[in-house]
């Protein structure tokens, strides 16, 4: 029988809440909905165990992980009535490089370090990667901070024989994926794109942060859409709209105008409504299983099978 | 330099109007919009020549093909201001099997016979196939009548060393394709389908015919959607709606409800508006080029590369 | 302090379930959502008391009204955790005219008889009206059977000094109302309607019945839409679609194409999703209060203030 | 027979282009589409004559009005193949208060001065009002600059016996009107608004200007929506999106979530696509006719019938 994966998690936000609860639900019911791969490299969703957790907020540090995930501003809903205690007490995360050694000690025994803290603090992200290196663990970075796409860090993981997966999670099912799939279908069927737009609205704290750093994110969205298209200049992305009434939902409006044979027009309008923070857990659990499998089979550095799950894999610009 | 393909066309409806005009536009401008493959087996869209045409309506027989395509009830719009005469006079089509010999004589010189008459007259379709056989031409059937999927006819073409492509054209971009692509994306990303529906509205004569024979078409649509899905019982297709005000447009409303990680809901609503008869020409011109290429390279019988362009290829039920 | 209205109800379907539960919720919380008039003629929503109830189904007859409303095929959801018993036992309804006298006796003490049985049995509806007449009660008919618009019955109520309100409830908020409001707005702002369509989808038993009697309902919908418009010939209604996956929801797709100044185009697309059976209760509770007020103030016959709430008031064709 | 209205126009943008062309089309065909009132106070749409025009751009000054309206950045399409010359040469507008006297002289003979220059230059707007006063003409301000709602200016027009109509045109059919009508319908039918949002996208120069001054406009939109509602805090307006590919179109996405009886949910989603600059002409032509009628009947100051056509009539905040 396969051994469960031992995971240390950095950051205890909505994504981790979805992940922890989904794993517990899988164990309790044997039948979690919305999973990409029930079994991946022999590992089920329920075969993921948490052995350490780090956060900075006073409300989370010192609590059991199963309680900390419900502390505000987290607002991902309860998926399961009685979530058992995890036995893992959330520790204080590192705030400067002098603490790398302390954290490396606390990571002892973990096979995979999942980095899921808020984006925007590259030095912190890299300090945790350093701690993972010292602790002999694989590192998975689901934030947009440059870790796996930093060639120097990748080289050090490779030399140490440790897997390093990242950066930046794709959503399991979101605007970019749907928009891209439709533009691709158009191209495959020989239609000519006339114009297209995308409007993104959301109500979470995370979304509010995005809005305040809007331009970067919009450029990144545009890159995602038009990577393989000759039509980059025909797709427009409206300013992100932070609408608190949407609460933990995200809404997108997509329009596509195109031409078929002889120029006759085709119009497509789409509204997509998703529940925001749950989008990442189904992808994260796959990255964890890929990282554990690579570690156990001594594949060092990056793992190619992760590419469809990442927005900024190694080789993309920092 | 490659020789142009000589095509005889049976039926002079909206589809053929789109085809004839698009080819002329390609020749005039060198840049037709909405083409799947600019060059296929060395043949451009402008490399298709019409050498014979057959119809039954009094308004069309005796006219030049370039005029006949604008006779009512055809209502595909003009794509090009001055369409040159084709030099091909539309002949009277066959109405019973005794005329096969006469038609075979009139097909002399054609490399490909394109069968594009109204669906629903299998014996007529097969009589034209017989005439093509006798004239030594490849046969392309874009109607839903069983020709290529009739094993006896396929055997005879194979024995005669002639290509036979069919049956029933997929649209270049329509409801089934878009709906299928989205259901497939859902599955690929690990979401669980809760329910889905599709509403189809149209305003053409062809659409009115479909509505009157609605059940068959709806079953066929459902088959198309759920062929590769485990979710056949979750997709519903509303009754077709014939709305004359839509004129030559087709409109579809698609709804998809699904669940991601832990059962959190995802909703997707889509409206698709296409110009009806143009949908077929971009696919037809590919089938013609595939058939000509097969004939010229002495590939007999069916050509596998045609499968993505056909609704009922050989092996499907009659 | 005003006296509560004593109501006898005929039919114990989803509409009556919504009504009974909403009234209980108002009493329990003092704050029912979705009410048109909190107080109407001095009567609150909680001032409606049920004193008798009639049904035919074996599962309902003999039970307390508060239990009978949850018997299948009723499927309106529970609005309130603990619904107190009503003290009213559902009696066997009448099945032929010989029972009018029996029912009239059982109506004794009721001020208002609410007729809410399934539509389509005009003789039964009129027999209950006769029983109400004999019992000295006002009559409210929310079904499409002709009672209030039958001039003979209206004359008898008027002569007896009793109010008679009907026929056929408008929904509180449904496709017809929204579509009509938008067409009206268009006209008011000077736009010219080009074309418009409406698609109606639903998943309830009631909706399935409608689909099977589709033509009448579509004509009635069309009448409702175009009563005051010069544009009757520009609005089209697609065939009703019974889609069981929608369960107790109704969905409508509305499209409007119009022209403003100089003929420049305007397009409007709308999707409306409502929870089906709740639509009637908010209107029914107003009709009950209007009828009680009329009875108490000795206004006989029809009451003009009811007109906006009815599809077929007196004077419309039977 | 009624005398035509003599109008001097300030600003020669898209709105004036739509107006000039629509009037010519009405005269040529007798049947302009999209007009609110065919005849208003005895005046038809064709009864409006231009007698003077003012602009600042070098491309417009010195040209006949019928040519100047097609100079860039104007991009309102041609409604009429051959627009006759107007006989009015566009003059150089005023740039400071010292030119009021010159302009007043050039206004001689005009009954109505239509102020349609770009918004945002209150002093200029008021200088033209001063010139109209001296010339004895009525003044119509369709921009958002404060003229009619400036009590001091209104008093001077009233004392001079001259009509003054403004400020800021409502669109003939736009997002605010449709959104407001639906929120009003909801309230009228007794539903409780849960939340609502509005997204506005556009591609014109005017729209780009709005985006750059976004906050004011959004507040104004919010005010317009919630003036009569108790629900001001439930409506959210997403940031305006300038999407050049939309060219002269405006697109809005509106969502409304509400509750009916007992709290059961109702959802409404709407997409509205309009042709931007034409929205104002149908309203402007009514304001001109109201102003002319008032002048001819010696009604001084504001005219109440204009209120539904204005966003900021007298009494609103400046």
From TrEMBL, chains A, B, C, D:
Alphabetized Pfam families for the sequence: Inos-1-P_synth
GO biological process: inositol biosynthetic process
Domain of life: Bacteria
Entries under InterPro entries matching the protein: MIPS, Myo-inos-1-P_Synthase_GAPDH, NAD(P)-bd_dom_sf
Domain Myo-inositol-1-phosphate synthase GAPDH-like: 174-276
One GO MF term attached to the UniProt entry: inositol-3-phosphate synthase activity
UniProt protein name: Myo-inositol-1-phosphate synthase
Organism: Planobispora takensis
Upper classification of the organism: Bacteria, Bacillati, Actinomycetota, Actinomycetes, Streptosporangiales
């Amino acid at each position: 029988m396969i051994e469960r994966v031992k995971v240390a998690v950095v950051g205890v936000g909505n994504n981790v809440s979805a992940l922890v609860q989904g794993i517990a639900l899988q164990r309790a019911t044997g039948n979690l909905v919305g999973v990409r791969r029930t079994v991946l490299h022999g590992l089920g969703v329920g075969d993921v165990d948490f052995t350490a957790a780090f956060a900075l907020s006073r409300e989370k540090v010192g609590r059991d992980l199963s309680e900390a995930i419900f502390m505000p501003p987290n607002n991902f809903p309860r998926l399961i009535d009685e979530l058992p205690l995890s036995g893992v007490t959330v520790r204080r995360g590192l705030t400067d490089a002098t603490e790398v050694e302390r954290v490396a000690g606390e990571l002892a025994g973990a096979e995979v370090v999942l980095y899921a803290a808020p984006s925007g603090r590259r030095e912190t992200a890299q300090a945790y990667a350093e701690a993972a290196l010292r602790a002999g663990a694989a590192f998975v970075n689901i934030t947009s901070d440059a870790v796996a796409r930093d060639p120097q860090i990748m080289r050090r993981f490779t030399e140490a024989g440790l897997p390093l997966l990242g950066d930046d999670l794709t959503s399991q099912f979101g605007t970019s994926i749907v928009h891209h799939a439709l533009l691709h279908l158009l191209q495959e069927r020989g239609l000519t794109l006339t114009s297209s737009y995308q409007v993104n609205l959301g109500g979470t704290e995370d979304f509010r942060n995005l809005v305040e750093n809007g331009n970067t994110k919009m450029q990144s969205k545009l890159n995602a859409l038009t990577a393989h298209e000759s039509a980059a200049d025909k797709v427009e992305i409206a300013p992100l709209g932070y609408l608190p009434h949407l609460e933990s939902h995200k809404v997108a409006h997509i329009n596509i105008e195109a031409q078929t044979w002889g120029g006759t027009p085709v119009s497509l309008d789409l509204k997509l409504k998703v529940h925001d923070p749950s989008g990442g857990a189904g992808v994260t659990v796959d990255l964890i299983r890929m990282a554990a499998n690579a570690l156990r089979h001594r594949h060092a550095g990056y793992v190619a099978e992760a590419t469809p799950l990442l927005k900024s894999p190694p080789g993309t610009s920092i």
